[in-house]
Amino acid sequence: MQPLKEYMITKEPFYLAQGDELAIAEAAYVHTIPLLLKGPTGCGKTRFMQHLAWKLQRPLVTVSCHDDLSTSDLVGRYLIKGGEALWVDGPLTMAVRHGAICYLDEIVEARKDTTVVIHPLADDRRELPIEKLGELLHAPPEFMLAISYNPGYQSVLKDLKQSTRQRFISLEFNYPKQELEADIVRHESGVDHATAEVLVRLAAMTRNLKDAGLPEGASTRLLIHAGKLMQSGMESRRACRAAISETLTDDHELLASINEMINSLF
Amino acid sequence: MNIAELKDSFFAQVPSHPPNDWEIEEHLEHIVELPAVSQELILSHVPAIWAVSHSLCYSYLSSARSALNCLSTDHITPWVGDFLDTYEKDGLRAAQHSMADVESNFLCRIRGEAGLDFNAAASRLTPYARSIIERKITLATGPRIYTDTECIYLPGKLTLCSSDAENFLLYKLIVTFQLGILLQGTYEFDPEADNPLIVELVNTYGAGPVPERIGLDLFFSLFPNSRLAEDIFTLQEAQRVSRFLAASFPGLWRDTAKIRSDLAASRVLQSQLPAHSKMMEGLVHRVITGGKGPPWNSMELPLHEQVLAEFNKPAGSAADSAAQTAVIYAMLKHVEETYIKVAPVYYIGRLRPAEARKGMRRRRATAKEEFIKILASVILKVDRKTADVVENENSSQGASPVLSGEEGTAMLLFSSKKQDNIHTARENMETPRFLTLEGPMAELPEPLRNLAEEIVADLGHIPNDYISAAQGMAGRAAPSLQAASSPAGESLAAPITYDEWDFRRNGFRKDWCRLLEKQVQPIKGTFVDSTLDKYKGLLRQLKKQFEMLRSSERFIKRQRDGDEIDLDALIESISDTRAGKSPSERLFIRLQRDERDIAVLFLVDMSSSTEGWINQAIKEALILMGEALQVLGDRFAIYGFSGMRRLRSDFYRVKDFAEPYSEEIKGRIAAIGPQEYTRMGPPLRHAIEMLKNVEAKVRLLVTLSDGKPEDYDDYKGEYAIEDTRHALIEAKASGIHPFCITIDKQAHDYIGHMYGEVNYIFVDEVRKLPLRLPEIYRVLTT
For residue B581, which of B185, B245, B576, B605 is within the disulfide window of CB 3.0 to 4.6 Å? Predict the structure, then answer.
């Protein structure tokens, strides 16, 4: 039986390349160098990883990091079952053992001491010491490590340490160009091309609101949500309100402004 | 009250700057006949108005009587607040005007009969406008609707439609249309003199010699009847922009269809219009609704259709519209009657090319100025770094630490690199992020990057003189800054205005104070070392205490899940199982961490009254605090404040949140020195703004001051206390914890009121401050 079968991606995930990111990622894979994806939320980082995993025919193990994520959550721990202590691999160990792609999403959310576990894996040693088992795992060449973070949250606390980031090859993601984004919205949500274009224009407008108190404008993901609502017969203005403006902000005035944009466009 | 009593009562209200006897008498006469209750009511508002403007106060006295005729006594206070707002926004004349007709200017509004006020729509419209156009556009009220490319002028109030919702839509239509004019580049039409169209026009109509570039107004004057040409062109462009809007903003176009047809229907058509004016009126209708407009008789119809055919041709740019203008003009030029200009379409207004040109020039000038200033500061920073290196090298060789010629070469290098960067940037369509110098790298600050983008978008490139001017500025500033040792350093940005709370009118004085952020220049001296030495023992103790605060980690046992197995629990559970009892499932140990996420801003009183011991103690306290916080890892910033009068509140930057606590910062702390007065409001409000931008679980604002807030003008006593109190309330409303440390010989009663009972501490012995401050901080944050 093929291990991690449930982590394999069998159908090609829809992905339109924004540039040469696929070529870079494949080269990184060949040279066993880990990947760092950065970019705003909902711009396609995770989808890119799925596509890459599909292309490389490797299982994809994704871990969403949070500030309570401990080393054992990544590496593994003993559990007690019927009076016996059983070792259970964490997702990272599992990925290393089976040569999968391990994707740590929003890595800056994890505590700094947790981030350090990946250091020996991320340089040319490519090994994962499991202290509790007294075992040193060597990563097979198929194993790949990828992390992502959103540089938009400009907080001193949520910055990646140089010692961590300088082990990676970095890919910067941004919202795709207008035509590309419209294609993506159309394909993912099923709306017609004209509607997709209007949605993309709306997103561009909200992204202009940085100074007005909206640090991040509508992401491609939100546009797809809005499109899906429209596809199921919801009136366009209502769909945009539910999927975009209410999602973006709670600020009363900004909300009203975004709704005015929606009213103008639809 | 008779006139003498009134006068006494008036003088009692305005102790500072009392007016002349005869002057005030004249105005008090207006209210002398009123009953005493009304007189008192009127006089009770005098202090608030007097402080804002004396003339306004006189007008108030004159119109108060008629106001009382239609206002109930409850309405007087909001009415006063209302015209004070008008005064602060539009000046004395507007306020007097508003006072003169209380009925329509105040009462109707509060009854909700008077249409939609711009202020009510602005908060929604401004972000809307900025989302459409990438450059920073402002909305303002003005007598005519137009845009000068940096600002869109709108009516102060819209009453055309019956409901607020429709009036708002009309506002939105105006804004979107004016933005459409900008997006479609109507004002960017400035052909060269050898443009075929211009040459043809000059030849046909025989205009005099033309300059190299033809602006819009000049273009109109090429026609003998420039007014007709202007109207044709305006409508032609209006048609083009309307088409653009209908395609890009279909929702808006649909929503405003009714309003637009109402607008078209309400146009008055004079029966005796000359033929070309009538044609124009037809085009106006075409633009607004797509309809036909006035009825046409069989004589006019062919011409109208001919004009319309040309008018309806698709146009891709302002140049196309200009060409069409020439064609239509030629069709109409044979009409012999005098042309009567048609009324402009309401939401379009008339084009104002001269204003647009001014606006564009202004925008360029401000962009240039900003760009030069920021770039100069970047150059300076880079230079200082190199200069430091040079200095160190020199001093190690025993030479005098002066700026050498190397700095000059560094700058030259910098310049050429920068130019390269800009060139490649233009090729790659992205803006440079880094400047490279011999060694040090400086990241272009975000505002500079944005400005550079803006300038490139406007002019196509960054002119050389921008960069050379910045170098010049940096060059001039460099030696003077090196020499400067006083804390009154360079100003860092344009002044910021803040409102001030006036308790007498229970409202804000709009944009009353101006605050300037300045940089404290570090001084080298023995102060820092001697302080560290003096408190060596205390410091060791402090560090230990603060280390323990760092982040508390503890193992919690007997958890359902965790990183480790809890052996005690496991053994117990096994023995429980053997004994036949049901075992516990809580067999794990988990590591619990309580991380500190605190940002603190220390705001230091730098008024002249702190001179001597207090200043010394504050500085020592800050040094100790800095060392302790260094251990703790909490983010902190230090700012000082002082100033004189409302127009010059100085805000000194000692350390911002991003800067590491370095020797330079210690030098700046040492440079904190007494300056002028203590106006607490503006610096507090500025500190609040800064803290709002910091992401932390706990945001703390610690002020260190002595005694009462006081300024040279009437900022003293109750007024100052109430303003300070209000600023602190604003802090709490923004989720910031204010805490005030007062150093004074004895505690005064007002302190509790001003700071709020739980938010202050009182230090009576100055010498103890350096010991007390870290202690207070420790207690506050645990």
Answer: B576
Residues B366 and B449 in one domain: yes
Structure tokens at B404: 């050498």
Does B464 lie in the same domain as B339? Answer: no
Which amino acid, B56?
L
Please report, for chain A, the start and end positions of each structural domain, with discontinuous segments joined by +: 5-172, 178-265
Q: Of B59, B39, B35, nearest to B49 (Cα)?
A: B59
**A contacts of B635 (beta carbons < 8 Å):** 156
Distance (Å) from the alpha carbon of A54 to chain B's nearest alpha carbon:
32
Partner B contacted by A111 (CB < 8 A): yes
Q: How many CA atoms lie within 13 A of B111 on its CB side?
A: 10
Q: Are residues B190 and B314 in the same domain?
A: yes
How does DSSP assign chain A, residue by residue? --TTGGG---SPPP---SSSHHHHHHHHHHTT--EEEE--TTSSHHHHHHHHHHHHT--EEEEE--TT--HHHHHEEEEEETTEEEEEE-HHHHHHHHT-EEEEETGGGS-HHHHGGGHHHHSTT-EEEETTTTEEEEPPTT-EEEEEE-TTS--STT---HHHHTTSEEEE--PPPHHHHHHHHHHHH---HHHHHHHHHHHHHHHGGGGGT-SS---HHHHHHHHHHHHTT--HHHHHIIIIIHHH---HHHHHHHHHHHHHH-
Give the type of residue at B435.
L
| Nearest alpha carbon to residue B496 among B643, B338, B630, B285 | B643
Angle CA(B445)–CA(B451)–CA(B454) in degrees, nearest 5? Answer: 145
Tokens describing residue B5: 């009593």
pLDDT digits (tens, 9 = 90+) for A60-72: 999 998 877 888 8
Note whether B434 and B296 are same-domain residues: no
* A contacts of B570 (beta carbons < 8 Å): 80
Query: How do residues B532-554 score in pLDDT, each as one tens digit?
Result: 888 888 888 778 777 776 666 67
Distance CA B253, CA B259 (A): 10
∠ Cα B581 B582 B584 (to 5°): 125
Residue B480 to residue B458: CA distance in whole angstroms: 34
A263 touches chain B (CB under 8 A): yes
CB B153 within 8 A of CB B146: yes
Q: What is the CATH number of the domain that holds B708?
A: 3.40.50.410
B200 and B318, same domain (yes or no): yes
B557: enclosing H helix or E strand:
strand B552-559
Choose the closest CB to A70 out of B131, B249, B591. Answer: B591
Is the domain of B238 the same as that of B327? yes
Instruction: Tell me: do B623 and B684 sit in the same domain.
Output: yes
What residues contact A169, with CB distance under 8 A and at least 6 apart? A24, A28, A33, A34, A35, A36
Domain residues for the domain of B670 are 497-521+596-780
- Tell me which CATH code domain A5-172 carries: 3.40.50.300
Q: Which residue has the tokens 């807030």?
A: B709
Partners of residue B249 in chain A, C-beta under 8 Å: 264-265
Q: What is the pLDDT of residues B16-47, one digit of tens each?
A: 667 777 777 778 888 888 888 888 888 888 88
* Burial bucket for residue B758 (CB in 10 Å: 0-12, 13-18, 19+): exposed
Choose, out of B116, B125, B130, B131, the residue to mutate when testing the contact with A (most A CBs < 10 Å).
B131
Residues of chain B where predicted confidence (pLDDT) is lower than 50: 389-442, 477-488
Report yes or no: B724 and B709 within 8 Å, Cβ to Cβ.
yes
Indicate whether B159 belongs to any domain.
no
- What's the pTM value of the predicted model, to 2 decimals? 0.62
Q: Cα separation of B656 and B600, whole Å?
A: 10
pLDDT at B551: 64
The count of domains in chain B is: 5
**What pLDDT shows up at residue B435?**
44
The CB-side HSE value for A239 (13 A sphere, CA atoms) comes to 22
